[in-house]
Design goal:
With about 260 residues, the chain is α+β, with helices and mostly antiparallel strands. It has one domain: Creatinase/methionine aminopeptidase superfamily (Creatine Amidinohydrolase, Alpha-Beta Complex), CATH 3.90.230. Helix content is about 25%, strand content about 25%. It has four helices and 17 strands. The strands form six sheets. It has a three-stranded antiparallel beta sheet with strand order 1-5-6. Helix 3 packs antiparallel against helix 4. The longest helix is centred in the N-terminal third of the chain and has 22 residues. The chain is globular. The termini are far apart. The chain binds 2-amino-4-trifluoromethylsulfanyl-butyric acid and cobalt (II) ion (2 copies). One cobalt (II) ion binds next to loops.
Length: about 260
């Protein structure tokens, strides 16, 4: 069941979205060779708490940390660890989800550590474009499948593959709600877009095969063939007048004091 949100509720969700974006702005300068993913976790956690917000991932279905840190062939849900140090040439996705006044704001970006290969940088660039094209596909009159179709077409044009096991999702008072947003598929399929829908788009794009496997920690998803994977995520809302708005932008951040 899809919980539609009023314009007032969407305004409230912008506070969580803005804080999520600001958290990634804050962490950017810390993403350097030598820092551990546990240190990144602590910086984001403390930033969130300081803003009277809660880290949704922490203890969510047993997830042990406050953010997800997914390096190189890790597709998503990488667990921060004091044993994992960033090294020159890595690409890392940092995924944050603060809860503000009960509402979730979910966003992730890729960061380059030192000087990654041209191949890695191109994957990151095309994946960002995939998210942008997915967002542009959201229009009253269309359907959720239009998002996946736009993303798949762009990824495959560059000989990349789209991960199928993880999807975007409705979001609000709950972290994951209906509808599911697939990042591949056919235009004109899926749920019709409606005013009041709030959902994430979060394509995961691989250089090699789209298949993933889960590591023994029961969370970390890696590419089946060890190829590099990238992901970007935004939380999107459709206003009562049909306008599409990205909630997870820094402009929505309101300083607390
Ligand atoms: N932030 C992730 C998403 O985009 C979900 C992480 S679930 C966790 O949906 F438990 F790993 F935190
Ligand atoms: Co999400
Ligand atoms: Co996320």
């Amino acid at each position: 069941m899809i919980y539609l949100k009023s314009d007032k509720q969407i305004d409230e969700m912008k506070l969580a979205g803005g804080l999520a974006a600001k958290t990634l702005d804050m962490i950017a300068e810390h993403v350097k060779p030598g820092i551990t993913t546990q240190q990144l976790n602590e910086l984001c956690h403390n930033f969130t708490i300081k803003h009277n917000a809660i880290c949704a991932p922490l203890k969510y279905k047993g997830f042990p940390k406050s953010i997800c840190t997914s390096i190189n062939d890790v597709v998503c849900h990488g667990i921060p660890s004091s044993k994992t140090k960033l090294k020159d040439g890595d690409i890392i996705n940092i995924d944050v989800t603060p809860i503000v006044n009960g509402y979730h704001g979910d966003t992730s970006r890729m960061f380059l550590v030192g000087q990654p290969s041209r191949e890695a940088k191109k994957l990151v660039e095309i994946t960002q474009q995939c998210l942008e094209l997915g967002i542009e596909a959201v229009k009253i009159g269309g359907r959720t499948g239009d998002i996946g179709a736009a993303i798949q077409q762009h990824a495959e044009k560059h000989k990349y593959s789209v991960v199928r096991e993880f999807v975007g999702h409705g979001i609000g008072k709950k972290f994951h709600e209906d509808p599911q947003i697939m990042h591949y598929g056919k235009p004109g399929t899926g749920k019709p877009f409606e005013p009041g829908m709030v959902f994430t788009i979060e394509p995961m794009i691989n250089i090699g095969h789209w298949k993933t496997k889960i590591k023994k920690d029961r969370w970390t998803a890696v590419t089946i063939d060890g190829s590099l994977s990238a992901q970007f995520e935004h939380t999107i809302a459709i206003r009562s007048n049909g306008q599409v708005e990205i909630l997870t932008v820094s402009e929505n951040y309101i300083p607390t004091n």
